[in-house]
Amino acid sequence: MRKIVLMMSVSLDGYMEGPNRELDWHLVDEELHTHFNDVLRDMGAFLDGRVSYELMADYWPTADRDPDAPAPVADFARIWRGKPKLVFSRTLHRAEWHTTIVRDVVVDDIMALKAQEGGDLALGGATLAAEFMRHDLIDEYWLYVHPVILGRGRPLFSRAEEMPKTDLHLIETRTFGNGVVLLRHARN
């Protein structure tokens, strides 16, 4: 059975974006970007909320056309364009690049998706992640902790009181040259 994998960058104090939705504190250098590409290349699909999808769709469809684009950027543009995507939105009416719009998180539908053949499913977007957590649907948490304290912003686990207790175990740590640390946990 495929796993649902939440991959999210967070500050040391647990924020996934700054107070004005900024992400400029993410330390995505060539090493980290190449790692993301290597992991995401093998995923079966991307599951995103509308905001995450629209941010991705604003840049990645043509990012590899820039002759000055670094190799990992051009590589990810090709990965993103070709990968099946499910965007969870009640307001989005049209999407491109192998994208299916899904209106609601329906547990039985997600379980059927997990039962299909193919690679694991990469979950993105804090609001969507909170909904998947509330339904206890996430199998692995890959948190990329960046060496910065924001002090305020949007926390990754903003609706923790709505989530069931989930026991996890650490399956991997990795420190990147820029100081980012991957903490990879799986369900018990």
UniProtKB/TrEMBL annotation:
InterPro entries: DHFR-like_dom_sf, RibDG_C, Riboflavin_Biosynth_HTPR. Pfam families: RibD_C. SUPFAM superfamilies: Dihydrofolate reductase-like. Residues 2-182 form the Bacterial bifunctional deaminase-reductase C-terminal domain. PANTHER family: 2,5-DIAMINO-6-RIBOSYLAMINO-4(3H)-PYRIMIDINONE 5'-PHOSPHATE REDUCTASE (PTHR38011:SF11), DIHYDROFOLATE REDUCTASE FAMILY PROTEIN (AFU_ORTHOLOGUE AFUA_8G06820) (PTHR38011). This is Dihydrofolate reductase family protein. It comes from Streptomyces heilongjiangensis.
